[in-house]
Amino acid sequence: MSDRSSAPTQRSGEIGARVESFVREIVIPYEHDPRRDTHGPSDALVRELRTKAREAGVLTPHILADGNHLDQRETAYVLRQSGLSPLGPIAVNTAAPDEGNMYLLGKVGSDEQKRRFLEPIVRGEARSAFFMTEPAEDGGAGSDPSMMQTTAVLDGNHWVVNGRKAFITGAAGAQVGIVMARSNDGACMFLVDLPDPAITIERVLDTIDSSMPGGHAVISIDNLRVPSDQMLGHSGEGFKYAQVRLAPARLSHCMRWLGACIRANEIATDYACRRQAFGKPLVDHEGVGFMLAENLIDLKQSELMIDWCAAVLDTGAPGGSESSMTKVAVSEALMRVADRCVQTMGGTGVTGDTIVEQVFREIRAFRIYDGPTEVHKWSLAKKIKRDWKGQP
């Protein structure tokens, strides 16, 4: 994929090149490390990889030494390079949910909150979790955040939070939590130190994906007392802050998984060019060669969608509809890419011998996380109706 529609800036090009070199040379050999299981890489493995990233000067590469972020188009290039291995974003500290939480804290947090909660995450010394989604059996918030059941009641100079959360990525082992709850004013966000005895992990779910440390947990919150100065922003503005986080976060997912699918396609292409069947390499059979050609088309279209959405966000626009369109287009395109890579490699494609099988699983989950395809289409359809002005 060297023929890019928009060349990176000199700054992002240099950073991205260092990240790509680090991921290919240092991180990829860890892909068969036994310290990975169905709930993600162990904290020991995360620490080891981040130590190596720190030594290589590529830890948290999208945040500069002065605390400023690369813009979204620059970030797209760097995060794509980090995604060339499922372990890459974890190693260089560009992974969800930390990347999105860093962005949110940088935009909304007070100076003291940034010092206490943001800086350890940026340094790669702490992992974080974002407590928003709630269990379906409780009738709680999922794709519809207005259904939030978790409550926050002011008691003196503390807020008392009660409720349950589900699919909380990385809660097991996290040191920083951002908890969403509903006060009399509306949705709120609170910063909490983890672990906390009032927050209990009921269970870590067995899910189709396995790239994120700590997996995805169901959580009980029982009389969690949070000092008032640990509210993020203002009471009642939590949904606004969620959009500050979620629009760029959807795009960041697209960036990272584009990198993973580029790598999966490299592996499938190598296999098809080496493997012989019926007297010639697989790639010379139209059924296989055409799949790889279609992969190039989907990868390029994904790249273009990401670049377009990033450019919109860089103007300061909210980017809600643009990020919805991009999330749908890219997740569906990358699902096709991952599926074709598995199909091209046949039996080998469904084994753990390469990352192709894992990428397929991760992309399948990506079609749901940060809003299922159908919810984004529904949101876009509502916008179409709002913008309709009658007969042309």
UniProtKB/TrEMBL annotation:
<feature type="domain" description="Acyl-CoA oxidase/dehydrogenase middle">
    <location>
        <begin position="129"/>
        <end position="206"/>
    </location>
</feature>
<dbReference type="InterPro" id="IPR036250">
    <property type="entry name" value="AcylCo_DH-like_C"/>
</dbReference>
<dbReference type="InterPro" id="IPR037069">
    <property type="entry name" value="AcylCoA_DH/ox_N_sf"/>
</dbReference>
<comment type="subunit">
    <text>Homodimer.</text>
</comment>
<dbReference type="Pfam" id="PF02770">
    <property type="entry name" value="Acyl-CoA_dh_M"/>
</dbReference>
<keyword id="KW-0274">FAD</keyword>
<keyword id="KW-0285">Flavoprotein</keyword>
<protein>
    <submittedName>
        <fullName>Acyl-CoA dehydrogenase family protein</fullName>
    </submittedName>
</protein>
<dbReference type="InterPro" id="IPR009100">
    <property type="entry name" value="AcylCoA_DH/oxidase_NM_dom_sf"/>
</dbReference>
<dbReference type="InterPro" id="IPR009075">
    <property type="entry name" value="AcylCo_DH/oxidase_C"/>
</dbReference>
<keyword id="KW-0560">Oxidoreductase</keyword>
<comment type="similarity">
    <text>Belongs to the acyl-CoA dehydrogenase family.</text>
</comment>
<dbReference type="InterPro" id="IPR006091">
    <property type="entry name" value="Acyl-CoA_Oxase/DH_mid-dom"/>
</dbReference>
<dbReference type="Pfam" id="PF02771">
    <property type="entry name" value="Acyl-CoA_dh_N"/>
</dbReference>
<feature type="domain" description="Acyl-CoA dehydrogenase/oxidase C-terminal">
    <location>
        <begin position="236"/>
        <end position="383"/>
    </location>
</feature>
<dbReference type="InterPro" id="IPR046373">
    <property type="entry name" value="Acyl-CoA_Oxase/DH_mid-dom_sf"/>
</dbReference>
<feature type="domain" description="Acyl-CoA dehydrogenase/oxidase N-terminal">
    <location>
        <begin position="14"/>
        <end position="125"/>
    </location>
</feature>
<dbReference type="InterPro" id="IPR013786">
    <property type="entry name" value="AcylCoA_DH/ox_N"/>
</dbReference>
<dbReference type="Pfam" id="PF00441">
    <property type="entry name" value="Acyl-CoA_dh_1"/>
</dbReference>
<dbReference type="InterPro" id="IPR050741">
    <property type="entry name" value="Acyl-CoA_dehydrogenase"/>
</dbReference>
